[in-house]
Amino acid sequence: MQGTMSAFSESCGENLCPEEENTSSANEGRDLTVTIGATVPTGFEPTAAEEVRQKIGADARISKDRGRIYFQISTDKLASVHHLKSVDNLFVIVQEFENYEFKDSKEDAMSDFQQLAPQLPWSDALEVWRMNNSLKKRRGRRRGGNSSKPKPGKGEDAPVPATEEGDAADLIPAEKGQSDTPQAEEGEGDQAGNLEKEAPEDEANKTLKFRVTCNRAGDKHCFTSNDAARDFGGAVQEFFQWKADMTKFDVEVLLNIHYSEVVVGIALTEESLHRRNITHFGPTTLRSTLAYGMLSLCNPQVSDVIIDPMCGTGAIPVEGSIEWQHSFFIAGDNNDMAVSRTVNNVNHIQKRNQDAGSAPLSVDTVQWDLCHLPMRTSSVDIIVTDMPFGKRMGSRKKNWDLYPSCLREMARVCRPGTGKAVLLTQDKKCFSKAISRMGGLWRRVHTVWVNVGGLVAGVYVLKRTGSVYGTTPEDVRPPQEAPNSGKDEQ
Length: 490
Hints:
Layout: H1 2-12, H2 18-28, E1 33-39, H3 45-55, E2 61-62, E3 68-74, H4 78-81, E4 89-97, H5 106-116, H6 123-135, E5 156-160, H7 168-171, H8 189-198, E6 209-217, H9 225-240, E7 243-244, E8 251-258, E9 261-267, H10 288-298, E10 305-308, H11 315-323, E11 328-333, H12 336-356, E12 363-367, E13 382-386, H13 396-413, E14 420-425, H14 428-436, E15 442-452, E16 455-464, H15 485-489
Parallel strand pairs: 6-7, 6-8, 10-11, 10-13, 11-12, 13-14
Antiparallel strand pairs: 1-3, 1-4, 2-3, 4-9, 5-6, 8-9, 14-16, 15-16
Helix pairs in contact: 1-2, 1-6, 5-9, 10-11, 13-14
């Protein structure tokens, strides 16, 4: 255990024995090769793997569990990993089991988890965790939970921490002369007083706080995520003598179980990286990682004119103008509040670039009517937008009129033959019906199915046909009926 603990003892300021100091110094003098895991928007795993290949120079492996990729790096590239645009969360792999054999009974399966913790090779992963802490500025104590995690599907359990309030005693058995309280707010008077007395103590003697988060998928397990996290977390606590804290933890140990695959890791991100650029959020703010994936599907080129006619908070043009600086982006919306949020988000990035001495963003914001865009015919190269699902924004009934009208107007401003459109919507029935009526203007290339807030949505990649607008039956707008048109027909 001495070799394992030395990898991270220096970051905690703990007193080391000579043997542990030598081990820690040896690790600092060399670059480790470790496996990094990354969670990505479901459906965009190939896009994320391609970004890793281009920017990191590593070959990424797509996991059987959707929404995850794995790749090997040396620790000198650890900082570059945090600049990937397509990943939500990062973690370093402690050990991976491709075909883990679970016992038939719950007691035996939990006993195996308890015996697994002290047998794992923790040293390299904890050294990477320590290096990762030195790369970033600490934003106070770590916060638990992540609202962006997808909802579990059939046979899945939601991610849970190692314990809940009723399980605290099971996780941390009381020892002589040692308090068994993981959190001050859950403790009683004497226990809270003990924690208050510990607060002024020197950081050098601080005990790390941790939690175990379990993600489980599969319907043939005889245990739940709570069971696995509690028993595995208890073994981790006994091995390292850490304290459990569900919210203000220092280390988050991940236990990912996907059918027969088990992956143990340590989290490297405090919060999802998709929050990196947006400061003013709306009711349906698109994640930056999803916006990057949608833009990657259309492969923007130098001098391309790219518009988002329903920009919302501007996640797509903001992300695009940062990554593809030689293209020009126009963000528009008919809602003045959405336009205001987009302007504020763009100004935030502009000020950040100005302070860093970087070039300004090539993006502009306009308030307009989606069905009557103030743009010349055949003047746009790419259209990327998040269309209203008809749930939080708009309605399914309105979509039946909106979708055909906006597809027709998008075809008017898009360049024939070379123009592209990448459109996100969850109203699959309405969109399929609308696009089937636009065969002379748009051709569907392929569809990427993604998880957006627990909803299965489609990212539709369209190619503009070579037909000139105004020469096909599809581009004729239906005439508006007069109020008494029904009586005239009779």
